[in-house]
Amino acid sequence: MLNNLLAAIxxxxxxxxxxxxxxxxxxxxxxxxxxxKNVSDEFISVIIPFRNESENILANLxxxxxxxxxxxxxxxxxxxxxxxxxxxxxxxxxRTLENIKVINVPKDFxxxxxxxxxxxxxxxxSTGEIIVTTDADCIYEKEWLKTLLNNFDNQTGFxxxxxxxxxxxxxxSKIQKLEFAGLxxxxxxxxxxxxxxICNAANIAYRKNVFELVNGFNDNMNFSSGxxxxxxxxxxxDTAYKVKFSLEENSIVxxxxxxxxxxxxxxxxxxxxxxxxxxxxxLVLKLIMIYLFHVGLVIQxxxxxxxSSYFWITLSISIVLKLITEFMxxxxxxxxxxxxxxxxxxxxxxxxxxxxxxxxGLMGSFGNILWKDRRLTR
Length: 378
Known about the structure:
Elements: H1 2-30, E1 44-50, H2 57-65, E2 74-80, H3 87-94, E3 100-104, H4 115-124, E4 130-133, E5 138-140, H5 144-149, E6 156-160, E7 163-166, H6 171-192, E8 204-207, H7 208-213, H8 229-238, E9 242-245, E10 253-256, H9 261-272, H10 281-306, H11 310-336, H12 346-366, E11 369-371, E12 374-376
Parallel strand pairs: 1-2, 1-4, 2-3, 6-9, 7-10
Antiparallel strand pairs: 4-8, 5-10, 6-8, 11-12
Helix pairs in contact: 1-6, 1-10, 1-11, 6-11, 6-12, 9-12, 10-11, 10-12
C-alpha cells in the first residue's frame, strides 16, 4: 500500500514536469524571427551596471563602441555601483564616443537593492524612450543592438534576448555552457507559450513608459536580484503589452562561464533566491513541484537501495522521460538559435544537474547570497 502511494506521488510529479517541458518545446516552435526594419526614431539608453569589473570592462567597452547603430540614436550609461578597483578609470581613459557616460550611484540610494539600484539609478538618469540593460562582463556582435531592437513594435513592451557562455576546452566550461543554454531556452519557450517566467538581465529591453506604468522595481527593491524577471512578469500580467524573445543569432550576448565551482554555486543560488517570491502563486506552486520532482529522484534512489527494488522501475521511467524530453528541447534550441552548441556532455550534465538543483534551490531560498564580494540577504 505504501509503495503504491509513493509511486503515485512520484508519477504525479513526473507528469507535471513532462507537461512543463513539453510546454517549453511547443513554445520554442511558436517563436518567430523578427524582420529587418529601419532604425526607429525612438532614442535608446543602454544601461550597464558594474562593480569591480576591471578585468572585463575594456573588452565590453570595445564591443559596445563597435555597435553598428546610429550613434546619435543611443546613449551608453555605465553605472558604477561602489567599485573598489580601477574600472571607472579604464572607461574614462579609453572611451572614444561622446555618447558614453559614467555615473556613480550615491551610497545612500536604495542600499539593499545593489545591482537593481544601479539599474534604477541609470533609468532615472537616462533620456531614452527604450531601456536596454546588459552586464559589464559581456561582449556583443556588431549588430546586437540593432537586431535586438528589431523585435519592437507598438504593441511590444519587453524583449528578452539570448545569452550564451563563452566555451573553453575545460569540461567545467562545456557543462556550464550547455546547462546555461538550457535555462535560456526554457525562458524562450515559456515566452513562446505566453507564460513569461525567466529571462536574463544581461540582454533585455523594455519601454521606459511601460516600466513606469508597472511602477518599475518599487515593489521588489528589498530583493538583491530580480531586476529582470519580476519586471517581465509584471508587464506580461498587468499590461496589454506583449513580451517577446529575440530569436536571432546576432542578438546573442556572450559572457564568460564561472571560473570555479564556488562561483557557479553562488550564481545559481542567487538566481534561485527569488523564485518563491514571484507574485503569481500558481507559478510558485509549479516551481515547487518541479523542485520536488528532482528531490523525488534522490528519494526514489534511496528507497530502491534500502527498502524496495520496485522503485528502480519508477526511478528509471522518471529519468528516461526526463532525458528524452530535455534532449528534445536542447536539440530544438540548437536548430533555431544556438547552432554551434555541442550536446556531447548532455548525459553528464543531466546527472550533475539533479543534486545542484536540489542544493542551490534549498540554499537560495533560505540562505544568504554572495555577490561581488558582498554577502546579501534576499
